[in-house]
C-alpha cells in the first residue's frame, strides 16, 4: 500500500473550504497541512497533483438496490457494475437494501446479500434490512442484526401492496424495537392501499400508459403516509428517515414533525430535483424509463425540494439506484403500467448532478453539497468519522474534482449496466477526475483503476442520544 501526498488542492468538508495538502498512510488520512512536502518526501509518498481542483470526501450513497429481484426481474446492476459506476461518479460508500422474505430467518437474507456483494464490490458498502413482519422470531434476531452485523437501519415499505408493504402495526412495532436497539427506521412513505385501489380503477378504465403510474400515486398520499410515519415515530420515540421525498406535502409533514422535536430526517434524489412527470407522457412507451415510486411530480415541487435542502428541512441525497434496461425489463409493463419495474439508474450521476444543479447554479453552498452527499449520510448511518469527511484518522476516501470541466450525461458514456440514462443530454459542470478508496485509486484520471472485491463490508454503529444529529428546530420550523 503506497502512501500518497495529495498536494495543492482545495479541501472541502461540510464545515470548511481551505487550501491544504493531505498525507495518506495505510489507507488513512495521516496528516493535513498547508505544505506537506517534507513529510511526503520522508515517507516516500506518491504525489497526486490537485492544483486547481477541489478535494472532496468520497460520496456516501445511503440508498441503492443492487442485484435486487423486483417486479418480476432483477436489477441490471449488480455489486460489480453498480459500485464501479458509483466510483466513476465520486461515490466511495454505498448502503444497499437487503430484502427479506416473510417466514425466513433474517440471517439467511443477510447471508444472501453478503454473497451478492463480496468478491464484487470495488468500494465499501453496508446494508439496511427490510422488515416485512414482526413476530417473536424477528424480534429475537434483531439484536444480532444491529450489534453483530452492524445493520443499524431497518426499512419498512408503506407501499407495494402484496409485495413489500407492511401494515402500520408492523411499522410501529419495528419502531419500538429499533428505538431500544439504537437503530433507525426508514420508510418508503406512500399509502399502498389507496394506490392499489387507484391502479385497479385506472386499469379497469383502460388506462394502461406509463403516465398513469403518476396519476395513480398522487402527492397527497405521499404526504399522508409521511405524516403517519412521523406521528408513529413520535409516539414510539424512534428515529425515522423518510427515503426519496418527492413533494411539497411530504416536506411539510417532515418540517412540522421536526419543529415538534420529532427525530425525523428526509432524503431526496436527483431525479426529483431535475425531472418532472411530463417525462412519463413521452411518446410511445418511453415514459417507462421514468417510472419511479413515488413518481416524478409536477415541476413546481422541484423548487420546494431545493428550498427544503437549503433550509435543512431535507438533509440527504440518495440515488435510489434501481436500474432496469428499457429493452427486456421496462417493457414487462407494455400494456399495463403497473407492471413496469419501478426504478432507474442514478448511482453514477447523483454526486455530479447535485454539484452542477446545486452548487454551480447557486442553489446550495459547496459545504452544504458535501454535507448532503457524504457527511450527513455517514453521520446518520453510523459511519462517521470513518466515512463522509476529510479528517485525520478518517478513511482516505477522496475525490479529486475539476469544478470547471463540462460534460454531457449520456448512456453512451456512462458506466452503469443499463441501456439508457434518464438524464440523457443534461449538461453538467464539474467532473470527478480521480477517486480513492482507502488511499488506493479506484478511478485514476477518468479510467477505472480498481479491483473487483476490494470493497469491504462496513459494520455500522447504532446511534445514542450523545451521538447527536438531533433535529435542528430552527431550520425545521422554516416553511418551504
Ligand atoms: N423507487 C423505485 O421506484 N424503485 C426502487 C424501490 C424503492 O425504493 O421503492
Ligand atoms: Zn421506495
Ligand atoms: Zn429505493
TrEMBL record:
PANTHER family: COLLAPSIN RESPONSE MEDIATOR PROTEIN, HYDRANTOINASE/DIHYDROPYRIMIDINASE FAMILY MEMBER. Its cofactor is Zn(2+). Residues 460-480 are annotated as: Disordered. GO terms for molecular function: dihydropyrimidinase activity. SUPFAM superfamilies: Composite domain of metallo-dependent hydrolases, Metallo-dependent hydrolases. Keywords: Hydrolase, Metal-binding. Belongs to the metallo-dependent hydrolases superfamily. Hydantoinase/dihydropyrimidinase family. The keyword rRNA processing does not apply. The keyword Repeat does not apply. Pfam families: Amidohydro_1. Its EC number is 3.5.2.2. It is an enzyme of class 3 (hydrolase). InterPro entries: Amidohydro-rel, Hydantoinase/dihydroPyrase, Metal-dep_hydrolase_composite, Metal_Hydrolase, Metallo-dep_Hydrolases_sf. Residues 54-440 form the Amidohydrolase-related domain. This is Dihydropyrimidinase. It comes from Paenibacillus harenae. CDD domains: D-HYD (cd01314).
Amino acid at each position: 500500500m503506497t502512501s500518497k501526498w495529495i498536494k495543492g488542492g482545495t479541501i472541502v468538508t461540510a464545515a470548511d473550504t481551505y487550501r491544504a495538502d493531505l498525507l495518506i498512510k495505510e489507507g488513512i488520512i495521516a496528516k493535513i497541512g498547508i505544505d506537506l512536502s517534507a513529510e511526503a518526501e520522508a515517507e516516500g509518498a506518491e504525489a497526486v497533483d490537485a492544483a486547481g481542483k477541489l478535494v472532496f470526501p468520497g460520496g456516501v450513497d445511503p440508498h441503492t438496490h443492487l442485484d435486487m429481484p423486483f417486479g418480476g426481474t432483477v436489477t441490471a446492476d449488480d455489486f460489480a457494475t453498480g459500485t464501479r459506476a458509483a466510483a466513476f461518479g465520486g461515490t466511495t460508500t454505498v448502503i444497499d437494501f437487503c430484502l427479506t422474505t416473510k417466514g425466513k430467518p433474517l440471517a439467511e437474507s443477510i447471508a444472501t446479500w453478503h454473497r451478492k456483494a463480496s468478491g464484487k464490490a470495488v468500494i465499501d458498502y453496508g446494508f439496511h434490512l427490510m422488515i416485512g413482519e414482526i413476530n417473536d422470531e424477528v424480534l429475537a434476531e434483531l439484536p444480532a442484526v444491529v450489534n453483530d452485523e452492524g445493520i443499524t437501519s431497518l426499512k419498512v415499505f408503506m407501499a407495494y401492496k402484496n409485495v413489500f408493504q407492511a401494515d402500520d402495526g408492523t411499522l410501529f412495532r419495528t419502531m419500538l424495537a429499533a428505538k431500544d436497539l439504537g437503530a433507525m427506521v426508514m420508510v418508503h412513505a406512500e399509502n399502498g392501499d389507496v394506490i392499489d385501489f387507484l391502479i385497479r380503477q385506472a386499469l379497469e378504465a383502460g388506462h394502461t400508459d406509463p403516465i398513469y403510474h403518476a396519476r395513480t400515486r398522487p402527492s397527497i398520499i405521499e404526504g399522508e403516509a409521511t405524516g403517519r410515519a412521523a406521528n408513529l415515530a413520535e409516539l414510539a420515540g424512534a428515529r425515522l428517515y423518510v427515503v426519496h421525498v418527492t413533494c411539497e406535502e411530504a416536506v411539510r409533514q417532515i418540517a412540522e414533525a421536526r419543529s415538534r422535536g420529532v427525530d425525523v430526517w428526509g432524503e431526496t434524489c436527483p431525479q426529483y430535483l431535475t425531472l418532472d412527470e411530463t417525462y412519463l407522457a413521452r411518446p410511445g412507451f418511453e415514459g417507462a424509463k421514468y417510472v419511479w415510486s413515488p413518481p416524478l411530480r409536477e415541476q413546481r415541487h422541484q423548487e420546494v425540494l431545493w428550498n427544503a435542502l437549503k433550509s435543512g428541512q431535507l438533509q440527504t441525497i440518495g440515488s435510489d439506484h434501481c436500474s432496469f434496461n428499457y429493452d427486456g425489463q421496462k417493457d414487462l409493463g407494455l400494456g399495463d403500467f403497473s407492471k413496469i419495474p419501478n426504478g432507474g439508474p442514478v448511482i453514477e450521476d447523483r454526486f455530479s448532478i447535485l454539484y452542477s444543479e446545486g452548487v454551480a447554479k447557486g442553489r446550495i453552498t459547496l459545504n452544504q453539497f458535501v454535507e448532503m452527499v457524504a457527511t450527513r449520510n455517514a453521520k446518520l448511518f453510523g459511519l462517521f468519522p470513518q466515512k463522509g469527511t476529510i479528517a485525520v484518522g478518517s478513511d482516505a476516501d477522496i475525490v479529486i474534482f475539476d469544478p470547471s470541466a463540462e460534460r454531457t450525461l449520456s448512456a453512451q458514456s456512462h458506466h452503469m449496466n443499463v441501456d439508457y440514462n434518464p438524464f440523457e443530454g443534461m449538461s453538467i459542470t464539474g467532473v470527478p477526475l480521480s477517486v480513492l478508496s482507502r488511499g488506493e485509486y479506484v478511478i485514476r484520471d477518468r479510467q477505472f483503476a480498481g479491483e473487483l472485491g476490494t470493497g469491504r463490508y462496513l459494520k455500522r454503529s447504532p446511534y445514542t442520544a450523545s451521538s447527536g444529529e438531533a433535529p435542528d428546530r430552527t431550520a425545521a420550523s422554516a416553511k418551504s
